[in-house]
Amino acid sequence: MKLKEKAHSRTGDKGNISIISVIAYHDEDYALIKEKVTEEKVKEYFKEIVHGKITRYEIETISSLNFVMEDALGGGITRSLAMDMHGKSLGSALLEMEID
Length: 100
What we know:
By secondary structure, the chain is α+β, with helices and mostly antiparallel strands. It has helices at 30-36, 39-45, 88-94, and strands at residues 7-14, 17-24, 54-59, 64-69.
């Protein structure tokens, strides 16, 4: 199944850092999401985009994971010539991740 079947996301960016929150639709799915959506798996998933460290924070009270991804936006929107180097599109991309 895809992650989007169990969660939605919110995103933000600051400079060359992208932040993605993965929020379980139902609290009972949070344990599965925590197990399957690790820093390592997110780093592998975005290996061609994220060139820096990825840190995962767990926010138990709202069944959410928060990923801070450094060196993720081609230098940031003011430095990149790419059409869309905002972090918002990365949240949608992460929800396409296959989880068991």
